[in-house]
Amino acid sequence: MKNVSVYIDIVFCLVVLPVMMVIFPVERWFHNFQWYVITVGFWLYALYFVNRLFTVPALFRAGKSRWTGIVLILVSFGITYILAQISLYIPKPNVHDEGIVRIFPSIQQYQQAVWSLFMIVEAFSFAIGLLTQVNLQRSRRRAVEAERDKAEIELYKAQIKPHFMFNTLNSLYGLFLTHDGKAMESLEKYISMLRYIHTTSMRDFVAISEEADYIRQYVELQSLRLNGMTSVKMDIDIENNSLRIPPMLLVTFVENCFKHGISPVEKSRISILMTERNGKLVFSTENRIFPVKRIGEHMGIENCRKRLELLYPGKHLMSNDSDGTFYRVKLCIDLSV
Predict the structure, then answer these.
(1) Distance between CA atoms of 238 and 260, rounded to whole angstroms?
(2) Pairing mode, if any, of strands 268-277 and 230-238?
(3) Where residue 165 falls among pLDDT bands split at 50, 70, 90?
(4) Residue 92: φ, ψ to 5°
């Protein structure tokens, strides 16, 4: 918008105002009263930029600044009145004017020209100034909303990380408590995953291949503590590994499968599907439902839903349903744009 304003200023200075002045018999006045025409022309250009840069912005501000804008308007009328009151000549009666009734017989033609040009510049400068200020207000509002959304996204990310770590630590605690032989292997995978969380904490997006590897490690870590009652099927097929995706976005749905979909005494299955074709990502999970009430059990899913709304407005589709036995989630994201 800043460049557009500059272009409009150039057009006004080089085209609009010169054309408007040519409409009036300026050449005759310039031949006889050069100083007057130059003074009026300088004043009109000065008026345009004073209104654009000072008067209109002041009117958009509250308090004393608004009064400053009003004073500038009054001063501009006062200066124009002084210029129009300067007497250049006393017109002689013209026989061609006989029978013509003038509305303002005491106002000379050059005085009418000064006031006409003043009103044109005043209206044009205010119109452009108002348009510029409205667009500035919109830009500032969009910037504030963008900062707010960014802060909100960071908050959701900050909530997801400890949520994941506490749940995984609880699983590790169970393995060490039972002296499971897989405990050390699980700890190594957990350390590797913490390294990933640390390296991506300051990044808004990561390669989709990195996120896919992280999900694989998470599933392998959680599978170490499973007995034969739960089967896990995972299928990841990525066509373009260079696509970018927010870190720790999809693992919440996988975590939900292991949190609610396993039982030490009943058979269950977990299915995880992640495919990407032509920039379209499809991610789905399915797990058996074993209702166990936990504090903040819906926080991860809700955080992901809100992050998706902020990051991919109109570019994602998320659905979840339950038939009482299985819980299913399907997420589609357009990563091509």
Answers:
(1) 27
(2) parallel
(3) low
(4) -90, 150
Contact criterion met (CB below 8 Å) for 118 and 110:
no
Angle at 252 between CA 167 and CA 188, to 5 degrees: 50
Structural tokens at position 186: 């699980």
Residues 319 and 306: beta-carbon distance below 8 Å? no
55 neighbors 67 (Cβ within 8 angstroms): no
User: Taking the model in full, what pTM does it have?
Assistant: 0.53
Nearest residue to 109 (alpha-carbon basis) of 90, 96, 132: 90
Question: What digits encode the pLDDT tens for the residues 224-252?
Answer: 777 788 899 999 999 999 899 888 788 88
The yes-or-no verdict on residue 101 having pLDDT over 60 is no
Average pLDDT, the chain: 78
CA distance 230 to 251: 19
**Cα distance between residue 327 and residue 321, in whole Å:** 6
Residues 6+ apart with CB under 8 A from 297: 259, 260
Q: Is the pLDDT of residue 103 over 50?
A: no
Of the pLDDT bands very low, low, confident and very high (cuts 50, 70, 90), residue 333 is very high
pLDDT in tens, 279-302: 999 999 999 988 665 544 555 677
Mean pLDDT across the stretch 91-109? 52
